[in-house]
Specification:
By secondary structure, the protein is of the alpha/beta class. It folds into two domains: about 60 residues, DNA polymerase, domain 1 (Orthogonal Bundle), CATH 1.10.150.530; about 260 residues, TIM Barrel. It contains ten helices and 14 strands. Strand 4 and strand 5 form a beta hairpin. Helix 1 crosses helix 2. The longest helix has 13 residues.
């Protein structure tokens, strides 16, 4: 049974045409799916009964609820979903006063194997469809409370470009969820072909997972460096620096790992590397409570690192870790307990 949820307007037009209906019905379908977020074809009351019955033969809405919710002491919530192919993915909702951020996954697992990331320990399972990515938002009962979106969950977004771009189209189009691209940030380890397409076709914010400014050291932590070196990625950013002169934001994500990338030498190289870019560095202390052999830095060490960058003209901030007690914090999503209680 084909899923309607996750279809773009052009795809809905094809479905409508195949059903012998007038083209404007596609707009109505999109309104029911995204603006009104209905859960059944029967609720689409301005579509004829005959058309709904015809649709029901081969299509369903395709939005499914999470199979488990975990709630942190800090009110972060983690959601476990089962995919059509019986794999598991996770997303996280992080409320913070007036701001509320939803962290979305784009793949089951990840093939890039960053050494400090729990998702990387899973290996690669599958690509998510646009519907499965969007479902992490559309299935939430309080979705209207979400103010911001980050594609920083399981997987590498730019490794699943077609589904990602369809998702962003639905999220930002007037016929879809009509969200501002300034509310959406896509994170990447630096997949160059995907980066070039993303910069050309999307206006959403971009976050680059850097984590070490020295290519050899980064390669030891992040195997992607051997395929897409950081210097090539930063050269692309500098070539396209005009894209980030307005409200569109470029951020460098930097997880501070004790003894690995937290020295003054690393801070100085960051300053040199990012010279000439309008950007900011988002510092994240590594979440230590995992099976991996890494440790986060102290708050004071993070502040000293931040203050040095700021003193040299780089804008640097520290991201407060949330949801660590339910393995919902940055780098911890892995669905490793998915089989529990099933």
């Amino acid at each position: 049974m084909d899923k309607l949820y996750g279809k773009t307007l052009s795809e809905l037009k094809e479905i409508v045409a195949d059903g012998g209906e007038k083209p404007f019905k596609a707009q109505q379908l999109a309104q029911w799916l995204y603006e009104k977020n209905v859960s059944s074809l029967e609720e689409m009351t301005n579509l004829s009964k005959g058309f709904r019955e015809k649709l029901a033969v081969s299509h369903e809405i395709g939005r499914v609820p999470p199979i488990r919710e975990s709630v942190s002491q800090d009110e972060t919530r983690k959601y476990l979903f089962q995919t059509e192919r019986k794999n598991y993915i996770e997303s996280a909702w992080i409320p913070d006063r007036e701001r509320s951020t939803l962290c979305l996954s784009t793949q089951g697992g990840c093939k890039w194997g960053c050494k400090f990331c729990m998702t990387g320990t899973m290996g690669f399972k599958e690509q998510l469809s646009a519907g499965e990515i969007l479902n992490q938002y559309g299935s939430l009962p309080f979705r209207e409370r979400v103010t911001n979106f980050v594609f920083m969950g399981m997987g590498e977004p730019l490794d699943n470009m077609d589904s990602l771009m369809k998702t962003l189209e639905i999220m930002t189009s007037d016929w879809g969820y009509a969200l501002s691209p300034r509310r959406i940030t896509v994170s990447t380890v630096g997949i160059l072909p995907g980066l070039e397409r993303f910069l050309a076709e999307s206006e959403c914010h971009l976050a680059y997972s850097l984590h070490n400014p020295f290519s050899g050291e980064r390669a030891a932590l992040m195997p992607v460096e051997k395929t897409y070196p950081l210097h090539d990625v930063i050269a692309l950013f500098k070539k396209n620096r005009d894209l980030f002169k307005g409200q569109r934001r470029l951020t460098f994500e930097y997880t501070l790992i004790e003894g690995e990338n937290d020295s003054r030498r690393h801070a100085e190289e960051l300053v040199r590397l990012l010279n000439g870019l309008r950007t900011r560095v988002n510092l994240i202390s590594y979440n230590s409570g995992t099976d991996l052999p890494w440790h986060g830095v102290s708050r004071k060490a993070a502040e000293d690192f931040r203050d040095f960058l700021n003193s040299k003209g780089l804008t640097a901030t520290i991201r407060n870790s949330r949801g660590g007690d339910i393995e919902a914090a940055c780098g911890l999503l892995s669905a490793r307990t998915a089989s529990e209680d099933q």
